[in-house]
């Protein structure tokens, strides 16, 4: 039951995040729990939990006596977050190449192959979930709990922006190809190449989001449009 509730909350948080990134919910607007519950056909409890979850991403702010407000994320903030994300993920990939066990490497390779089938079927929801799991394998494979926790926390903060990239045409196939470079380097134990490939991948994730954000007004948040400019 707890897993079902958590899944519903995550799904709702994703839907609200998408509305913010698409510009339907504009920066500065108040997110009323009653309104959101009616809009998404649910009760206030999962709405409240979803808003708390989104507050950790920086997409919304929880203010005393005002409730939840859609935050205005600046281009500078996004750039700093993506730079930090790239450095942390690249370090995880480098350490994974050095530290992953044979079992972890086999699981990584198998998971990557399964993602190829999702690309062929253009299954965005499945690929999005598998993408998160793939990166988690690199975090765990680094065998450094402190680094893993830091990286996973920053990823949660950037999750709505990273998920939005998959709406860009052809992004699924490009993402899979970028992952392939990282996976091959890790499986070969090539730490330097794994680091470089992951750093390159995260920079292209940012580029994909910028291109999507550069779409006509109303399809992306104002902060993202500013960054794309």
Task: List the topology elements.
Layout: H1 2-21, E1 30-31, H2 33-40, H3 44-55, E2 60-63, E3 67-70, H4 75-99, H5 102-120, H6 124-141, H7 145-164, H8 171-188, H9 191-213, H10 222-228
Antiparallel strand pairs: 1-3, 2-3
Helix pairs in contact: 1-3, 2-3, 4-6, 4-7, 4-8, 4-9, 4-10, 5-6, 5-8, 6-7, 8-9, 9-10
Domain HTH gntR-type: 6-73
InterPro entries: GntR_C (IPR011711), TF_FadR/GntR_C (IPR008920), Tscrpt_reg_HTH_GntR (IPR000524), WH-like_DNA-bd_sf (IPR036388), WH_DNA-bd_sf (IPR036390)
Keywords: DNA-binding, Transcription, Transcription regulation
Task: Work out the helix count.
Answer: 10
Count of extended strands: 3
Proper CATH architecture of the largest domain: Up-down Bundle
Going by CATH, the homologous superfamily of the largest domain would be GntR ligand-binding domain-like
The total domain count is 2
Per the CATH scheme, the topology name of the largest domain is Four Helix Bundle (Hemerythrin (Met), subunit A)
Mean pLDDT: 84
Cα distance spanning the termini: 45 Å
Q: Using the alpha-carbon principal axes, give the shape.
A: elongated
Order of helices and strands: HEHHEEHHHHHHH
Going across the biggest sheet, name each strand in turn. Answer: 1-3-2
Q: What would you report as the Rg, rounded to the nearest angstrom?
A: 18 Å
Give the strand content.
under 5%
Structural category is mainly alpha
Main sheet summary: 3 strands, antiparallel
Summarize the amount of helix as a percent range. over 70%
What is the CATH class name of the largest domain? Mainly Alpha
Weakly predicted, low-confidence segments:
215-229
